[in-house]
Each structure stands twice: as C-alpha cells, then as structure tokens.
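Researcher: Checking consistency across runs. Here is Cytochrome P450 again:
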Amino acid sequence: MSERVNLMAPEVRANPYPVYAELRRTAPVCQVEPGGLWALTRFEDVAAAFKNPQVFSSAGVRTTTAPPWLGHNPFSESMIVMDPPRHMRLRTLVSRAWTPAAVNRLEPRIRSFAQTLAERLSPEREVDFVDAFAMPLPASVIGELFALDPTMTARYKRWSVDLSSVSGTTEKDTHRHESIKATVREMEDYLSDVVAERRRHPQDDMVSDLVKTRVDGEALSDAEVMSFLFLLVVAGLETTVQLVSHSVRLLMEQPHLVARLRENPSQVGRFVEEVLRYEPSVHGLVRVTTKATEVAGVVIPEGARVALMIGSACRDGERFKDPDTFDMDREGVNNMPFGHGIHFCLGAPLARLEARVGLEVLLSRFTRFTPTGPVKWNTSLTVRGPLSLPLIPHA
C-alpha cells in the first residue's frame, strides 16, 4: 500500500478485514493512521509481541487512554498498562477476588437478567438490540458483582462508550473532550463513594472482596481498587456488549445457524468461540517499544507506539484454515481475542458465560432476527462493535 491505512476511516471501521488481509500480504509491519502507529498484523508476530513485555511495554496502553487533553484517567493506572513486576502484584491481588467459583455462581442471575430482557423484546417489532439487550445484560451483571445501585445501569453505556472512545478521539475533537472528562469525574465520584462504603460496611460483593483481600499482608490501595473498577467497566462491559451484538448480527447474516442452535442448544458455546475468532471485540492493543527491535525484517525504533492487531491475527490464513469463513465446527482453541501472555484477560470466563447464557435465552424465544437498518459502528482503536443494531426479532 502506497499510503498509510487509516484504521479510523468509516469504510475501514465497517469492514476492516480486506484491509487487514492486504497488510498481512504486503506490509505485515508498517505504520498506519491515526498517529503513525506501527501495526503488527500477522498472528505469529502479534503473539510474539504479547509474550515479550521487556521489548513491547504495556505502557503503550496509557498513550491511548490518557492523552494530554484528558489527563487523569484511573483506567490508565490499571494493571493493563503495567509490566512485571508491578503487573504481577496487582494481578495476584485482584485474582483473589476474581475466582472461577465467583464467576460460575453468577450463572443463575445472568440467566434471570437475560430472561427479563428477552421478555421485553416484542416479536415483530423493531428494536435497537444494543440498547435493549446487549448493553443492559453485562451492565446488570456488573451491578450484581459490585452490589451497585440498580438504577445506575442506565449510565453504564455512556460511561463505557466514552471511555472506550478515548483512543479514537483526536486533539481536534474538542467537542468530545469535555464530555469524556465529565464522564471520568462522574465515575470516580460515584465509585469512590462505593469503595468508602464497602470499607465501612463490607457486603457479599466483589468490591468488598477487593478491599479486604491480602497477599503477604499487602492490600490494594483505594487508587488501585478504583483503577480496577474503571478497567472492568471498559473491558468487562464494552467487550461483552460487542460479543453479544456480533453474535446476533452473525445470526441475522446466517439464519441457518439459528435453526441449528435452537435444535442443539449445547452447541451455543462452540458458536461463541467462533464469533470470538471471526468478529473479536478487541481489534488492537497498543504497546511501546523499549528499544529498537526487528520484526519480519522491519526495524521498529525505540519508543514507537505499536498496535498489536488482534482482529487481523484472528483472520490470519497461516494460522486458521479458510479464515474468512465462519465455521463453528472449527477445531482447536483460540484465546487471542482475550489477549495473550501475562495480560490474558481475567474476565474471559465471565464474557463467555454471559454470551452463552444470553444467546441460549434469546434462541429459546426467537426463530430469526432480521435487520431493519444500517449498523452504526463505534470509534475506538481498541474495541470494534456496533453502537446501534436495529432489528426485528421473530417468534
């Protein structure tokens, strides 16, 4: 390609996969817009970079989540931006509260939330699926995890959209700056009150677990708890919203899969795994090089911002047979959609659980979904998915 690809261009946001394929073929390591990022697009190179934090530092995330116009952002102090040894300390502490048992015992509540939301979807009536189901399902789960005020769930969409859009907001987008700054202040004010209340009066919830957990006598500070709560709102909410939205969009595009899954509900989990590969929620994570390094014959300079393109890696034909074909019978495990190496997503089991249960409930009530308008895509270097998904569910 003679000109730099702009990953934020509307036509690329709508369908980035042909662009990714061309980059893998002709320029697997190259600079792209916005900002002259270096992009790695092949699975092998992306996986190697994830596993080499000594050269590809996670501090790169901070360059996209705390630009100069924003300044303070607790998300940018979370463990996702840290390298060893600080990363391991925080991950160990948080993992004490974020256990598989804590996630698995949520399934009955997730199913109850999904059933309530599905009952509100009227057959043969148009609805924005993101607003009506994909967003409130994980928002309700987060509220359950943290024992938050249920009336707050309506705010989560704005919070998650604003925070995830920081990476796609330029210096020139001044109309967005104040809105995002206000969101950060509002979240921090509300969550600070929650943390203080749990320290005074612990409950049976994850915030209480976070503030009381100890490893070798060491606890999380208020700032560290806050950064994790911000991280969960973005990573735990936004990525699950997109996973559920992508799943239903693919069922609209391939209606024969609805019939198959309704007949064999036990295969919904397999379907979700292929959605994660074919339409991953996370398309790129940014790293910063600590020294000049060579990848695929190209020298990336020290201090360069490097985008590890997960969305491209998951369509790499060197790794996956017929990568542009949706095949839920595909064998093998692909965890790339949740990151790789030391930063593999702690919330992956919860995201998979929410998507599986949500789809099981939807497929038990509806026989097909038909689109009623164009998809409106979000603007983020990190997460790609619909802001709105208009459709009609059919009983």
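Researcher: Does this match what you'd expect to see?
Model: One thing to look at in this run: The mean pLDDT is 89.
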